[in-house]
Design a protein that fits this description.
There is one protein chain. By secondary structure, the chain is of the alpha+beta class. The protein has four domains: 10-64, OB fold (Dihydrolipoamide Acetyltransferase, E2P) (Beta Barrel), CATH 2.40.50.140; 74-136, Nucleic acid-binding proteins (OB fold (Dihydrolipoamide Acetyltransferase, E2P), Beta Barrel); 143-208, Nucleic acid-binding proteins (OB fold (Dihydrolipoamide Acetyltransferase, E2P), Beta Barrel), CATH 2.40.50.140; 213-279, Winged helix-like DNA-binding domain superfamily/Winged helix DNA-binding domain (Arc Repressor Mutant, subunit A). Helix content is 15%, strand content 38%. It has helices at residues 135-138, 213-230, 243-250, 254-266; strands at 10-19, 22-26, 31-35, 48-55, 61-64, 74-84, 87-91, 98-101, 114-121, 128-131, 152-160, 164-169, 173-178, 192-199, 205-208, 234-235, 270-272, 277-279. A five-stranded antiparallel beta sheet has the order 3-2-1-4-5, with no helix packed on it. Strands 8-7-6-9-10 form a five-stranded antiparallel beta sheet, with no helix packed on it. A five-stranded mixed β-barrel has the order 11-12-13-15-14. Helix 2 (213-230) crosses helix 4. The protein is elongated, with a radius of gyration of 26 Å. The mean pLDDT is 89.
Length: 280
């Protein structure tokens, strides 16, 4: 709704007046303080400024030009700074840390460890809080996006498991990168592009780092040809090379390497030496 202040989001507000400790902005119903340390170098009275709105430690609505790591209705991978009797507090880029009440934790959360959480506005307190019980929020987003096998998506890895790494896909669906499909260094909390390998009956996604099907094989062949060019026309790898050596040089599994080499050989783009691959 227009002309309504949105807590937990960015707002474009009019500058009403200047005071020694900052600027007062038009919050429609009340004026809102932008503290002095967040005031930009240049501004004009009656001009507009983009600010994030939240509540300070004294529960007052306040503005900042700092950008939090997440706004409301978003997922984020955040680090625990403090454990208190009311819950844990997460670092999210603002002076006031973000609370996860104990009732919104699915396991004991520890200082220094990061977790995937959902940021929302508590309807009872009108405060911005976070929840680590992400399943209930994901269920609200089930129909947001339809996925297809082979589709390129963006994944946020957030938890190691016995099978591999759990990921949040396109900010709305859970997915899994399996151990045997991980051929590069995947860091928790760091976005990466992946491909959908399978859509399970429960809606969760099986993921892989390399493209699927023909697109994937074309990508692998291109990698090998680029490596051959880089090494002057001869690449010292072959079908008996250790899988670790193949991965170190090409970032792919031995199985994919052998398939790609076979395709290049059939296409007469390479010839096979005793212990090497040679550009034709």
């Amino acid at each position: 709704m227009e002309n309504e202040l949105k807590i937990g989001e960015y707002n474009r507000l009019r500058i009403v007046k200047e005071v020694p400790f900052g600027l007062y902005l038009d919050g429609y119903e009340d004026e809102i303080l932008l503290p002095l340390q967040y005031v930009p170098e240049s501004y004009e009275i009656d001009g507009f400024i983009d600010v994030f709105i939240y509540r300070d430690s004294e529960d007052r609505i306040i503005a900042t030009t700092l950008k939090p790591l997440a706004t409301i209705n978003q997922f984020a991978f955040l680090e625990v700074k403090q454990v208190t009797p009311i819950g844990v507090f997460l670092e999210w880029g603002l002076m006031k840390d973000l609370l996860v009440p104990f009732g919104q934790q699915w396991e004991k959360m520890s200082v220094g460890k990061s977790y995937l959480v959902y940021v929302y506005l508590d309807p009872q307190t009108d405060r911005i809080v976070a929840s680590a019980r992400i399943d209930k929020f994901l269920s609200l987003l089930d129909e947001v996006e339809e996925f297809t096998i082979g589709q390129k998506v963006q994944a946020l890895p957030f938890e190691y498991t016995n099978l591999g790494i759990k990921c949040l896909v396109n900010n709305c669906k859970l997915g899994q990168l399996f151990k045997n499909e991980i051929f590069t260094n995947v860091k928790l909390g760091q976005l990466l592009d992946v491909y959908i390998d399978n859509i399970r009956e429960d809606g969760k996604l099986d993921l892989r780092i390399e493209p699927v099907g023909i697109q994937r094989m074309d990508s692998q062949r291109e990698k090998i040809m680029e490596a051959i060019e880089l090494h002057g026309g001869t690449l010292n790898l072959h079908d008996k090379s250790p899988a670790e050596e193949i991965y170190e040089q090409l970032g792919m599994s031995k199985k994919d390497f052998k398939k790609a080499v076979g395709g290049l050989y059939k296409s007469k783009l390479i010839t096979l030496g005793d212990n090497c691959i040679i550009k034709s």
